[in-house]
């Protein structure tokens, strides 16, 4: 679920916080990093359970409509949404129920208005009208419809994003990745198989990498910061974006203390992160500083990369 770039962003946030507070004890910041990672999974569960709750609303509305129907006036309402094979599978999924119970989560229970609002937007969409009129439903069509409502109605909802940000501020950064993960997850749901939830980490070493990167950066922060000052003697320190300084320090830590990570991967990752989290000119600035630092490390034989193609 969480990729290395997302994990680097979580470390960046913790290092940035350290720079501002300079606490003597790192335990709270390490807890923040760990919590931020586990909260990403909580967001995933929130978004999947949101689909379940929308389905529950659909079933409830359909039942009430049937009770009001007069055969001479109305036709039976479409069952396409409540019979959606993927939604039915999610609603009965024991794996999803267990994951929520283990974390003591009951999302949307007290915030049903968001579920209701999204349900009505779905009902009003042209895609739903076409879907509801289809006389030959199929799993493929169910998935296509579900993908549409998620990508075009649920994920872009400003009201929903504002709510999630109030629940957990770090979810704003996780939101795009988690939405992509949900779509990938839905494509793997099969009516004939038990639902399998994705793991938090794509690789078993990712959690260790995250905490190690944080510790290596913090424990060597004065040395890492000092090198930046030597490379920017004509720059007023206040003119350099704090995020840029953090990213350059983290990149240095990867160059020097993570022999398995190729230099090109590190460079690319931090340049891409800077485009989303810093100024428009940051990528060029960071690239220039890191290029100079790399030359210095190579001349001093400080790079200790293991394997081919790591430099």
UniProtKB/TrEMBL annotation:
Q: Which residues form the NusB/RsmB/TIM44 domain?
A: 203-295
One of the record's GO cellular component terms:
cytosol
Q: Which SUPFAM superfamilies match?
A: NusB-like
User: One GO molecular-function annotation for this sequence?
Assistant: RNA binding
What keywords is this UniProt entry annotated with? RNA-binding, Transcription, Transcription antitermination, Transcription regulation
A Gene Ontology biological process annotation?
transcription antitermination
Looking up InterPro entries in the UniProt record yields: NusB-like_sf, NusB_fam, NusB_RsmB_TIM44
Question: PANTHER family in the record, alphabetically?
Answer: ANTITERMINATION NUSB DOMAIN-CONTAINING PROTEIN (PTHR11078:SF3), N UTILIZATION SUBSTANCE PROTEIN B-RELATED (PTHR11078)
Q: Which family would the database say this protein is a member of?
A: Belongs to the NusB family.
- Protein name stated in the entry: Putative antitermination protein
Q: Gene encoding this polypeptide?
A: nusB
């Amino acid at each position: 679920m969480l990729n290395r770039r997302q994990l680097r962003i979580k470390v960046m946030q913790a290092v940035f916080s350290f720079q501002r507070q300079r606490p003597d004890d790192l335990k709270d910041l390490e807890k923040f990093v760990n919590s931020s990672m586990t909260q990403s999974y909580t967001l995933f569960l929130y978004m999947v359970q949101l689909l379940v709750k929308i389905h529950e609303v659909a079933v409830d509305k359909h039942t009430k409509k049937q009770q009001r129907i007069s055969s001479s006036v109305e036709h039976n309402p479409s069952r396409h949404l409540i019979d959606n094979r993927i939604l039915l599978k999610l609603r009965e999924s024991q794996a999803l129920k267990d994951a929520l119970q283990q974390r003591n989560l009951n999302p949307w229970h007290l915030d049903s208005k968001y579920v209701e609002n999204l349900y009505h937007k779905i009902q009003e969409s042209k895609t739903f009208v076409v879907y509801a009129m289809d006389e030959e439903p199929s799993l493929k069509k169910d998935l296509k419809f579900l993908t549409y409502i998620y990508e075009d109605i649920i994920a872009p909802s400003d009201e929903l994003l504002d709510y999630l940000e109030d629940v957990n501020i770090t979810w704003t950064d996780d939101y795009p990745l988690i939405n992509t993960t949900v779509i990938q997850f839905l494509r793997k749901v099969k009516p004939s198989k038990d639902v399998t939830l994705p793991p938090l980490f794509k690789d078993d070493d990712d959690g260790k990498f995250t905490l190690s990167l944080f510790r290596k950066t913090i424990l060597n922060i004065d040395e890492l910061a000092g090198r930046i000052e030597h490379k920017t003697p004509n720059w007023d320190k206040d003119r350099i974006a704090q995020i840029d300084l953090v990213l350059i320090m983290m990149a240095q830590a990867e160059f020097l203390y993570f022999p398995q990570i190729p230099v090109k991967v590190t460079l690319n990752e931090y340049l891409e992160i800077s485009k989303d989290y810093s100024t428009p000119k940051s990528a060029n600035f960071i690239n220039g500083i890191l290029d100079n630092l790399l030359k210095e490390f190579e001349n001093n034989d400080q790079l200790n990369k293991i394997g081919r193609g790591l430099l």
